[in-house]
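## retry 2 of 3
previous attempt timed out at serialization; input unchanged, resubmitting
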Amino acid sequence: VTLGTFVQFQNKPPTPPSYSEIEKMMRGEKEPPFLESVKRLFGTPGFSIPLAAFICSISITNIVGTFIDEVMERGGITDQLGIDLAGAGFELAILVGGIIIGGYVDRTKQYKPVTLACLLATMFFVIPLGLTDHMMGNEPVLLVLALLGLGLACGPIQPINAELAVDVTYPSDETAVESVQQVGGNLVSALMVPVAEWALHQDYEFFRKIRPLDFDVRGDVLLLFTVAAVTIVYYNTFDAPLRRTMADGEEGGEEGESLTIDVSSSSSISGQKQPEFIER
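## retry succeeded, writing output
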């Protein structure tokens, strides 16, 4: 994988990904120093909300992945092959969800409603991972389905809100946006791991005296449920303008002018071929 990445890696895409990026390149804009970019990001209205959603998603997926053995064994899946396959299915579900749901949002720009729906689904699917119904006992099939559902729902929150953060902070440094989100997400995940490990051994029983309703929930699942619930409340306050989408719409909708990207002829900068822009 590393070798394949090294061979195919490029410094820049052959053409800019959006009208707004074309405009920035034509104006010759240069990105400010990284720390200055970070300060600007946190001073931009709306940036902290997609950051919170990104951190919520990566924290939940990282913690579930870290304790996948305990999650599966609690649900009755004890053989190592079964646990490995369940973990692989979880990662695959994250990938598929990102492609399908992320692709939909990329076309429609429905960042907020889709993210809220994914967070609600995350809350729904996370509970069975630590739930024991005393009447039914272990339900391995339910556990695996919940794990796959969690991957499909929680995974896409990351790419959707990485894109949203870039959109609301335009024309900021996109590398700085993604770096802040990755560092923040992994830092919070690392801090939550010891808390989740302690909560893993805490069981909370409900309806103990009513046998048909008697069940218990593990503490780590309640922790993840709470993280998603708090994120939903905070995310619901998002109302920042989509600056890059607006810039793309204005640039793409201008009458009498158009930008043509000529990829056949190019100038060389540091050995890299660059597209030429012809204004008509």
